[in-house]
Amino acid sequence: MYEFLVGNPPFEAEGHQATYRRISRVDLGFPSEVSPEAQDLIAKLLVKEPTHRLPLEKIPTHPWILRNAPRHSLQQYLPPQTFAALFSSPPGSGLSTAAAAATSTAGGGR
Question: Which residues does the UniProt record annotate as the domain Protein kinase (predicted)?
């Protein structure tokens, strides 16, 4: 996702040693063009400790995904009740709150 948005790998550096050092330290930086929501999602995925990463089932309800993915593609990955709860809210009415509530009731809050 980082490479798609930015155009180069997230830990790219001059030489293999420097790249490895950035990877091992999770030395992650973002250009100013990357939205705060995209930065948040990427940062939650690129966490060194696997158990602290954003769980796979929560990715479809992340605010950046909800704002940028076509609804028909989300419908494939979300349970019907979650999809309905997310998109029955009027625009600007706290979509992330609706997403959190819908995910916890759909069993995504594991």
Answer: 1-65
What b/e readout covers 65-92, taking b as 16+ CB neighbours within 10 angstroms? bbeeeeeeebbeebeeebbebbeeeeee
Element (H, E) at 59: none
The candidate with the shortest Cα–Cα distance to 103, out of 29, 84, 26, is 84
Residue 19 one-letter amino acid: T
In angstroms, what CA-CA distances link 50 with 20, 55, 56, 60, 86? 18, 9, 11, 19, 28
Distance of alpha carbon 89 from alpha carbon 106, whole angstroms: 17
Instruction: Quote the crossing angle between the two packed helices 80-87 and 95-105, to the nearest 10°.
Output: 160
The answer to pTM > 0.70 is no
**Whether the Cβ atoms of residue 108 and residue 58 lie closer than 8 Å to each other:** yes
